[in-house]
Amino acid sequence: MFYAPIIFKLQGDIYTILTFGCMLVHVIATFISLFTTDKLGRRLLLIAGSIGCAIGLLLATIFYPSSTETESDGDNMKTAFTVAIYFFVASFGLSHGPVE
Question: Which domain holds residue 90?
Fold first, then answer.
């Protein structure tokens, strides 16, 4: 969360909104995990969270926006990158964050 503004600087002027959204996703995911940990168990949450974190980081790596794309492709890449980061944060918030 500390580096979220730096990561989202690539998105332009809306990086503060994206950073707030990232933190909001983390809080909501952590709150949901309070109720699911006892029902599903820690082991299942950690395994599913690890897979989710790996998928999120893989997608963030694939969709990392670079300066070589055209403007329309760049916007799509930025959106996919943001969704991948949010997916990673949600996976972490549901598993490793509160469980460990």
Answer: 4-99
